[in-house]
Each structure stands twice: as structure tokens, then as C-alpha cells.
Amino acid sequence: MALHAGEVQFDRHGVTSAAVNHTFRLLDARPVKTALADSSGALALVTSGWFFEDVVRHSVTVDPASFRPVWVSEKETSTVAWIALPDHPYPPDPAALTVPAPEPTARSVPAAMFSMRGDIPDFVGRHDELRTLLDTVVTAASQPVRGIAVHAVDGMPGVGKTAFSIHAAHHLADRFPDGQIFLELYGHSPTQTPRDPADALASLLVATGMEQSALPHELDDRARLWRDRIAGKKVLLVLDDAASHDQLRPLLPGTPDCFVLITSRHRLPALDGVHALLLDVMPSDQAACLLLTLAAHAPSSTDADSGAATPTTVEAEVEAVARVVQLCGFLPLAIALAAGRLRSHPTWSIAYLADLLDQAPDRLAHLAGGDRSIRAAFTVSYQHLTAQRRWIFTLLGVHPGPSIDVYALAALADCSLTQAHDHLEALHADCLIQETAPGRFQLHDLLRVYAGSLAATADQADTERAMRQVLDYYLHTAATADGHMTVWTTPTVTITLHTPAHHPDVDTRQRARAWLDTELATLTTCLDHATGHPDLVIALSTTLHNYLRVSCEYEQALRIHHTALAAAERTQDRLGQATTLTYLGRVYYLRGDWTRAQQRHAHALQLFTDLGDQRGQANTLSDLGAVYYLPGEYERAQEVLAHALQLFTDLGDQRGQANTLASLGRVYYLRGEYERAQEVLAHALQLLTDLGDQRGQANALHFLGHLYYLRGDWDRAQHVLDQGHNLWVDLGSRRGQAQTMLGLGRVRHQQGDYDQALDLLTQAHALYAATGERDGQADTLNSLGDLALDHPPAGDPHALFTQAHTLARTIGTALHEAHALAGLGRCAHRAHDLPTATTAFTQALTIYQRLGSPATATITRYLADLHHNTNQHPETP
Asked: How far is CA 65 from the centre of its chain?
């Protein structure tokens, strides 16, 4: 008895269908007759390979281990079959379930089973991906229970999915002696419709040696016959450019000895048992190698005498290659097309091509050759989208930032969150956007250019409305988040907000900070795209200032505030100019650029005065006070701070009063007026505590801690500095944490806890270095030098003081310069180098005297006693 399943039909010549033929071939097979003859029973059962795999192997009433596999070669049929003896069964043997190799004498493989395309001779890179794939095949082959091995290679258009799959197939060819088939499915062809799976199965069945006229008509019957025809055979199948899951399912073999590689521009999550292999753009080194290999390009200039490339030309060529592959987005198709341009223009240097791509209004126009182009590759995917989704993709070319989430898309497209989520998921499934983090997506550089070109040809009223909607969304959410940020002063600019339909929850400081951290790059580029909305540019600059300051994003702050200043100047918005000049002055101050800080604040003060804006004047004068005292202009700082304090008092601005009092307290203790400083700082701290201003409290505690340190009250200094440090940690201010760590390190030094002091000072220096604050770095280097004189593991004191001196002179911080000189004098004294010590102490004394610093008395005493106490180790000034 023979069992098989399939469509039973007669053609017009009376020929039975392939399914009936197959059944009779099994019944006539020599192995079946032999098994029956050798059995003492009266019945033999033979099933086709498909029937055994799909039915018997999963049966709960029949033990599949009582079947034995055999090879059947009868007329046109060459396949595996399974024999059982129902009335005298074989003993169950799980090991017998392995399909045997075909009999050599019965094997005749049609040439059509070897239709794999030729490998690319100049294939470059993809070593890691290839190794991953090969290792998977080897590992799977060693498993006792195996399923069919199916790998789906997906990725954006032009990433090289087909080339990679063919290359991999050639590496695997010797493992699949029964066939290596390449089948195009035309899922994204500009000239062909996606291939019908019944038609694809017809091609596969004919490749196995069947006649076209013998093929069953129904899709399911063809699929079963295909699985049966290659059951037990080792066949490698590349299904190129798949359109969908439904197109692929009927084509998959049913035997574990086959291996299938699928390429598709669609991700295939609904295809069970498929191993996904995402092909990304190439690493920069592989991309450069690909360009040079395909271009076969010689160096553009050589040494006139030797004819060899000089180091200079080689370096320039390497830089040009890096520029070209970057402008190609590291995309293999784009790189290949760029290489083709070089081959067809022998006079072009790679640097010339780089400039051409960089400066071209339409970069994609230069990435074309013959019937291939980047634009065409992208257009095929674009045309397969629905009309609504094409518009969404076009709007992504309007979006200003490098990445987008569901809220921003909802604002951009004026749709619901559910719709925005569905759009992003669909575009991601089509490999047109990349997921950079959970819920965040971005366009590849060249896809961004393509989307931008689509937006440029769309209705400008629609794209402008979309742009304004998303800008309003970002401003509103940034302003909401700013409400949880540290506040320094009361703003002088009033911001009008438009509430979007959907926005994320930024209702805590942590959430607000996380959102701003994530969106900073997008918010920065928003300003570049909002040139037609100067009010929004100035508002966004104002909104972001507190965050940029507390997060120490000084470079971004300069870019943002300069953009806002240009917008204010262009529209003659004097209040906007004054406000952004104040912000720029603060950033320059934090970077240790006192000259620029003074210039920006002075200009802002003049504008606020002309406008009669008292609050603006008060804010700017308070900032100027801080700028003046760091270079050592204590008297001038005290004067402008007193003026600011009066203005804040007149305005009833308690936060302004408190912050200005704290700055005045610092000036007082720098001038040695400790009692007055303590009184003012205590008043400032009380005001700030009453206001609930944590930032202000932390700052006042920092100043109080330093005052106690100067007075030698180590315990109280440690107590208030610990309080301040905890507040800075809660606020997430790296600069504030660095300040209190520096203060605590000094205190620990004086308390004799050298190891703890070294740890704190080292952390403080690292934070200052990370934020680019040179004033803090110089101050910390001096304190490390002081510690190193008592604790050698802290480093070389002379080197530390030298670094501090160089840095202090560069930025013009007189107090730190004098401290460094005094430290160098102590180092020289220890080395018994009296002339050098005298010179250093004298230079330090000159600065301290000019500053009116209480350290003047200490240095004077050093100089007076220097030649009489050569073994004395001077104390820290």
C-alpha cells in the first residue's frame, strides 16, 4: 500500500496528475518489494517523504520510529520514501529517523538545480555577517534534532542584500551537492509584478526535472509536490527580493537538509522559524576598501622625482576617500555608483568627487550610472507604500531632527498616537527607517536627502504647516520640561506656547532631564530649520538655557544662543538681543573666557538700560559681578553687585536678591572680610531656603563651606559642603558636584585624611575636565599640588603647580595664578633652591597685593623668613 497526497486530475490527453504518478512509483519501488519479501507479514506500507514529514512524524497513534527511510528511483521519480510493516513491524528505533544519503547509482541531478548566480569577484567586507551565517549552518548541522534552516537577510535599499546572499551561497555550495538555486521573486521590481507563488513553484518543480505539463494546478498541491521532490536532498535555495510572508510560505522545503536564504526589503516577523540577519551599512574601513577596489583608482598625485605617492598625498587621499564614503552614507550601492563615476572620469581625483557630492544641490543625481541609481532604488520602495504612508515618509524629510518618536510624528502629521505608531512600525518593517532605541527612529542620510527632495516638490503650505506644528510641539514640551530645571534668574522674555494634542509626560525632574537629554540634538537643529519663525528661535533659546547650563552643554549653548541672537538682530528685536547676549555672557563665563563674557554682558546691559528694563539690568549686573571677581577685580565686582542688589530689592525679586547676596559674600571672603561674608551668606541661604530654591541653596552652601575652610573650621566646612553636594547630586549638576568635591577634598587634606582627599580631588578634576571648565581645573590642580607636598601618591607637586599656573595665566584667573606661584615657591624651598623660591614667592606676593587678598600676609612672612629657615616647609597660603 502506498500513501501520498495531491491533486488528482486528468489532462486532455488522459494523462493522470503528478500526484497519482508519484503514488504508483512508490508502490512499484524495488525497496518496497524487497521489504515485503523479507517480512513474515503480508502487508507493506510506503509513504512519500512529504506525507511522512507532515503527517506520520507528528502522529500520536503511529510510532514514526517504526518506519525506515529508503531511496526510490523509478522512472522520473527520485526521492526518499518511508516503509513500515503493519503486521510485522520494525522494532522502534529513533536513530532510524535520519534520512539516508541517496544511492549513487540512482542519482541524476538536473542541471537546472544549479542556477545560482556567479559570485562577485570584487566582493569586499561583510566578514562578521558571513561568519555569523556560516557558524549558524555548522552549528545547526551538528544538532540531533533539526528543522529547516531559513535565514532572512533584510536591510534598506542598496545595502547589498542580494550580493551578500550570493557570496554566502558560494561559500556554502559544497555542503549542498543536490542543488543551488537562485530564484527571483520580484518583490520590489520597477518593471515586474511580484511573482505568484504558484509560478515560482512551477519554476522550482521544473528545475527538479518535471515536465511543465505534469504539474498540478493548485498551489497547495504544487507546494506538497515540491517538498516531496527534494525530501532528503541537500539543496541551497536563495529566494531573492521577497514581497511577503504569503509569497514565501509555499516555497519553503520541508527537509532539514535544505538551506534557504531569503532577501527582502520587508522584515518578516510573521514567518516562523526564520533567523533574521540585518544587513546594515558598511563600517567605514570596509566602505573605503570597497570604493578603492571598485574604482581601481591610483593616487592622484605623486612625488615628481620618484613617482611614488608622498606621505602628504597619501594622507590627503585617505581623507578624500573617507569623505566620499561618508557622503555615500556607507551604503554599498551608493559607493559602487561613486566608484563608477571615478572609473568613467579618469581625470577626476577622489577629492574632486568628494567636493562634488558635498556641494551638489542634489547629491543623489551624482549617484547614478546606466540603469542603476540611488534615487531609483529608493523610489521602488517608496512606490510600494500606500498613498498615506508616502505622505508620512515625505514629512520625515521636513522633520528637523536626526531622530523622531511617536509624539513628534503625531505633531508633524497631525494624527493620533496610534496612527503615528502604526506609520513608524510600517516604515520600519519596510526598512525605510532605522530604530536607534526603543521607540526612536531615524532615516539613513541618503534616505533623508531623498525624503527632503520629495518634500521640496510637495505643496509648500502643507509642509510649512507640518513644520510649524512640530516646532510648536518641541517648544511646548521643552518649556514644560524646563519647569523642572534649575532656575538662576527670572526670565525677561515672555514665551507664548501652543499646546499640542499629544505630548509625553515630563512631570518630574528625572523625566524632564531624560527627555531633554534625548532631544537635545533635535532641539538644536530645530533652530536651523526655524529661520522663518524668529520668535520661536528666541523662545527656544530662552527655554533651553537653564538645561544647557546645568548639563554643562556649553558648545551646544553657544550654537543655540548665537542662532537666536542672529534671529533677534535680523528682526531688530532688541529685547531678544539683550536676553541672548546675557545667555552668551554666562556661557563664556563658565568656559573661562572673561573677555568675551564681559563684552556680551556689557552690550546686554546697554540694551536693557535703553529699554528701561530693570529686571534685565539687574540680572546682567549680577552676572557681571561674577565675571569681574574671577579675574581678581574684587572692588569692581562689589560695586556692580551692590547695584544689582538694589535693583532686585526695588523689584521685590527675592531670588535675585538672594543670589546676588551669595555672590557678594564670595567677594567679601576673597577680600578677607570673613565676618561680613558670613553674615551675607547666612542671609542669602535663609532667603533661598524659604523660596525652596535648591540650586541657590547648594551654591550658597558651597560658598559658606569655602568660607569655613578659609577660617580653619574644618568640621563646619565639611558639614555644609556635604549638604551642598547632596543637593547638587539631586539636581544632576556636574559642575556643582565638582565644586563641592573640590571643597571637601581640601577639608579632608587639612583633617589628615589624605587618601580620601586624593579621591575627592581626582573626581573633581575629572568632572571639570569633562565639562571643559578651565577655571575649576586650575583650582583643582593647585589643591592637588598642595596635597602632593604632604602625600606623594597625589603626584609630582611641581608638575601639578606648573599645569595650574599655565592654565590660570591662559584664562586670566589671577587668584589661581598666585596660588600656583606660591606652590612652586614651596617646591623650590623644599629643594633648597632659594633663588627660585624667592622669585616665585615675590611674583605671588605682587598678585596677592593687587587683589587685596589675605594671603598677602602669609607670602610676606615666607619671604622674610626664607633665608633664615631653610628647613621650614611653608604652609598652604
From this structure: 53
Give the 3-state secondary structure of residue 47: strand
The backbone torsions φ and ψ at residue 470, rounded to the nearest 5 degrees and listed phi first, read -75, -30
In the chain, % helix, strand, coil (3-state, to 5) comes to: 60, 10, 30
The reported pTM is: 0.76
Residue 329, pLDDT score: 93
Helices 374-383 & 332-344, crossing angle to 10 degrees? 150
Using DSSP's 3-state secondary structure scheme, residue 539 falls into helix
For 158, the grid coordinates are 542598496
E strands, 494-641, where?
Answer: none
611, with CB counted inside 10 A (0-12, 13-18, 19+), is middle
The proportion of the chain whose per-residue pLDDT surpasses 90, expressed as a percent, equals 48
- Helix 406-413 / helix 417-429 crossing angle, nearest 10 deg: 110
* pLDDT for res 132: 86
Q: Which residues contact 156 (CB under 8 A, 6 or more apart)?
A: 265, 281, 331, 431, 432, 434, 444, 447
pLDDT at 138: 74
For residues 171 and 131, what is the distance between their CA atoms, to the nearest angstrom?
Answer: 10
Q: Give the helix/strand (H/E) hosting 295.
A: helix 284-295
Bridge partners of 240? 184
Question: Can you tell me the mean pLDDT for 465-475?
Answer: 92
Q: Residues with Cβ < 8 Å from 290, sequence gap 6 or more?
A: 124, 125, 282, 325, 332, 335, 336, 339
Instruction: Name the nearest CA neighbour of 236 among 302, 165, 331.
Output: 165
Burial (CB count <10 Å: 0-12, 13-18, 19+), residue 662: buried
CA atoms within 13 A on the CB side of 846: 7
Contact 671, 633 (CB under 8 A): no
Q: Which of 97-111, 119-133, 551-565 has the highest mean pLDDT?
A: 551-565
Confidence of residue 776 (pLDDT cuts 50, 70, 90): very high
Q: Cα dist. 290→124, 335, 336, 367, 492 in Å?
A: 6, 7, 8, 15, 56
Q: How confident is the model at residue 137 (pLDDT cuts 50, 70, 90)?
A: confident
Rounded-to-integer distance, Cα 839 and Cα 827, Å: 12
Q: Single out the residue of 547, 617, 557 nearest to residue 589, CA to CA.
A: 557
Q: Is the pLDDT of residue 100 over 70?
A: no
> Each residue of 581-620: pLDDT tens digit?
999 999 998 888 888 999 999 999 999 999 999 999 999 9
Distance of CA 125 to the CA centre of its chain: 22
The H-or-E segment that residue 793 falls in is none
Between CA 136 and CA 151 the distance in angstroms is 10
DSSP string, 359-396: H-S-GGGGSEETTEEHHHHHHHHHHTS-HHHHHHHHHH
Residue of 66, 69, 65 whose CA lies nearest to 82: 69
CA 157 to chain CA mean position, Å: 21
Residue 15 pLDDT: 44
Of the CA atoms within 13 Å of residue 386, those in its CB half-sphere come to: 7
